[in-house]
Amino acid sequence: CHTSILPVRVLSTSIQQTPADAAFHSTSFTEADQPRILITGGLGQLGVGLANFLRKRFGKDSVILSDIRKPPDHIFHNGPFIYSDILDSKNLRETVVNNRISWLFHYSALLSAVGEADVSLAKAVNITGLHNVLDVATEHGLRLFVPSTIGAFGPTSPRNPAPDLCVQRPRTIYGVSKVHAELMGEYYYHRYGLDFRCLRYPGIISADSQPGGGTTDYAVQIFHHAVKSGRFECNLKPSTRLPMMYIEDCLRATLEVMEAPTKSLSMRTYNINAMSFTPEELAQEIHKHIPEFQITYNVDSVRQAIADSWPMNFDDSNARKDWGWKHDFDLPNLVTTMLNFPGFHTRVARAN
Ligand SMILES: NC(=O)C1=CN([C@@H]2O[C@H](COP(=O)(O)OP(=O)(O)OC[C@H]3O[C@@H](n4cnc5c(N)ncnc54)[C@H](O)[C@@H]3O)[C@@H](O)[C@H]2O)C=CC1
Ligand SMILES: CC(=O)[C@H](N)C(=O)O
Question: The pTM is what?
Answer without folding.
Answer: 0.91
